Amino acid sequence: MTAGALQTLAFRCAELTAIVLFILGLVFLSSPATARLGNRLAAVGMIIALIAFLSLTQGVGWWAIAIGMVVGGMVGLISALRVKMTAMPQMVALFNGAGGAAALYISTIEYYSGQAPYPSLLIVSLVLSAIIGALSAGGSLIAFLKLQEVMSGRPITYKGQQIVNGVVALGIVALAIWTISTHGDVPAAAIDALLVGAFVLGVLFVLPIGGADMPVVISLLNSFTGVAVAITGFELGHELLIVAGTLVGASGTLLTILMGRAMNRPLTNVLFGAFGAAAGSETTAATGGPQNIRSASVDDVAVLLAYARNVMVVPGYGMAVAQAQHSVKALADQLEARGVSVKYAIHPVAGRMPGHMNVLLAEANVPYPALLDMDDVNPEFPTTDVALVIGANDVTNPAARNVRSSPIYGMPILDVDKAHNVIVLKRSMRSGFAGIENPLYELPNCSMLFGDAKASVDALTAAVKAQ
Amino acid sequence: MIDGSTLYFFVTVFVLTIFLGFSVISKVPTTLHTPLMSATNAIHGVVLAGAIVVTAGIFGEDQPSWWMTMFAILAVALGTINVVGGFAVTERMLQMFRKRGGPTR
Fold it and tell me: Catalytic pick from A394, A415, A417, A458?
């Protein structure tokens, strides 16, 4: 065997090892007990892959690669160590965008360092990975700005929005067909318009999507980035990128489907519906606002909790906003010390990304077996003494079950209204994100405790202690 | 350049991975969906390998233009952010998942 063949063999082995470790990493993510091992296996796979690819370069362009890796490594490490758990959705949005932008830059370089006519496979994969990468980068940027509340989380709509988006999309398709059919023999301006247009389309398509739909959008952008990376693998001829990108694409797609199912809404409705804007006005006008709301004092609620047999905490985005997870755990500790059983009911779309609430409660040292999924927890509500709803709204709205005209009719919800007592911690009587009235608040077994979630929970803890 | 049989091989790998991906990911419990997303962020950071190849490619020919160099450095940096940030933040999150609760901090 020649030295060259040996080198190729070593490279192939490294690539295959990395692929196996990525897959094993995801397999081990199937249980919280083995998940850390899974993450580390995947990381080892990545290190092996990067060493193999770095040795392939034989040091050419080393200083540019070094600058990129040192700067990127520092930015990545610092942000990973500093980010608050409540800000994980923004962080993941940025990571999605970073991957998409990297695929976009790679394809741009590939195009401009070559010469038309490009081979068919190269030009097709180059155009597709650039478009999908740019879409993901533009969309992720807006998702980040909305989640970080630099921009309003409300849907941004204007007249003719669908038409504008449609025209931009058609323009991109036309440019892509032109570029591919001529094997890339088009003016540079056409390529630039294609790349910028795809980025702009990403921006435009996330603008009308509201904060409560972010779990769907983040999952979808995650899958876009995965697909962009997979196609980059076709472009560069490396199966490692194809496999890794496709795994991520499958993961993002599956999460998108799960989130859509948890909202009982088809994907098209999330992306093109501008839900919050349209639905709010109708229902508010129809019911004329809520009546018969009972407001409870901290002491009333504390007595109810302290003498309950079991309490079900139902967290929502409001808990994340108020950074109340540690306070909630302190209250639960206090109750458990009195012999009250405390569990947590997690709706799949509570919060701003899949699994958002679980991570926050894990941060506050809540053991994961106490976190129950919607399907497991709903049969338990009829035997629950107190359901304590903290900053969740639409996912507890019984209208989804029985009001045919409600915009959220058919959405699976947590049946908190079936608990003996429901306490809702809420900032004010403003309706939830979707702008839909919640008839739960008018039920005879429901009382409201108004105020900031963290302040209210802290006050409850002190009052329970005094019992 | 890639010939027909290599393309056929790549497409086969791609299609099989779709099935593999769905079956593996569907076993991840909802409680781990956020770490799953950040771990997949790290895995698609493998785009860094592509960025490394492309960067070496442009330096291998003539002296690349300044904006090509910038794009290459950016692609490498963004890929590295994904890899390092993704694995680190996933590790940080997974540390917090405990079977038995501890005291509040």
Answer: A394
Q: How many residues does chain B have?
A: 105
The Cα–Cα gap between A69 and A50 comes to: 11
Provide the residue ranges of all domains of chain A, joining segments of one domain with +. Answer: 1-82, 92-273, 290-466
Long-range contacts of A162-170 (CB under 8 A, 24+ apart): A162/A272, A164/A204, A165/A201, A165/A204, A165/A205, A168/A197, A168/A200, A168/A201, A168/A204, A169/A201
Please list every residue in chain A whose beta carbon sits closer than 8 Å to the beta carbon of residue B85. Answer: 75-77, 79-80, 91, 95
Return the amino acid letter for A192: D
Q: Could you report how far apart the first and last alpha carbons of chain A are, in Å?
A: 81
Please give, one letter per residue, the 3-state secondary structure of A203-266.
HHHHCCCCHHHHHHHHHHHHHHHHHHHHHHHHHHCCHHHHHHHHHHHHHHHHHHHHHHHHCCCC
- Mean pLDDT score, B4-28: 94
Which among B55, B85, B95 has CB closest to A76?
Answer: B85
- Within 21-60 of B, beta carbons closer than 8 Å to A belong to 21-22, 24-60
Amino acid A286: pLDDT: 43
Q: What angle do CA A178, A182, A183 make, to 5 degrees?
A: 115
- Min Cα distance B60 → chain A (Å) is 6
A387 and A393 Cβ atoms separated by less than 8 Å: no
What architecture is domain A290-466?
3-Layer(aba) Sandwich (3.40)
What local confidence, expressed as pLDDT, does residue A280 receive?
Answer: 39
How many residues in chain A? 467
Secondary structure in 3-state letters for A130-150: HHHHHHHHHHHHHHHHHHCCC
Q: How far is B34 from chain A (nearest CA, A)?
A: 5
Q: What is the C-alpha to C-alpha distance for residues A404 and A186, in angstroms, rounded to an integer?
A: 54
Note whether A95 and B35 are within 8 A (CB): no
> Can you give the pTM of this predicted structure?
0.92
Q: What's the CA gap between A76 and A69, in Å, rounded?
A: 10
Distance CA A357, CA B28 (A): 16
Q: Is A75 exposed, middle or buried (0-12, 13-18, 19+ CB in 10 A)?
A: middle
- Nearest residue in A to B66, CA atom: A64
Residue-wise pLDDT tens digits, A15-56:
999 999 999 999 999 999 999 999 999 999 999 999 999 999
How far apart are the C-alpha atoms of A270 and A221, rounded to whole Å? 13
Q: Which of residues 382-441 of A touch B (CB under 8 A)?
A: none
Within an 8 Å CB–CB cutoff, is residue A348 touching chain B?
Answer: yes
Own/partner pairs, B56-65, CB within 8 angstroms, 24+ separation:
B56/A56, B56/A57, B56/A58, B56/A60, B56/A61, B56/A65, B57/A109, B57/A113, B58/A61, B58/A109, B58/A113, B59/A60, B59/A61, B59/A64, B60/A60, B60/A61, B61/A113, B64/A113
- For chain A, what percent of residues have pLDDT higher than 90? 75
CB-nearest to A50 from B20, B39, B48 is B48
> CB–CB of A323/A454 below 8 Å?
yes
A394 labelled catalytic: yes
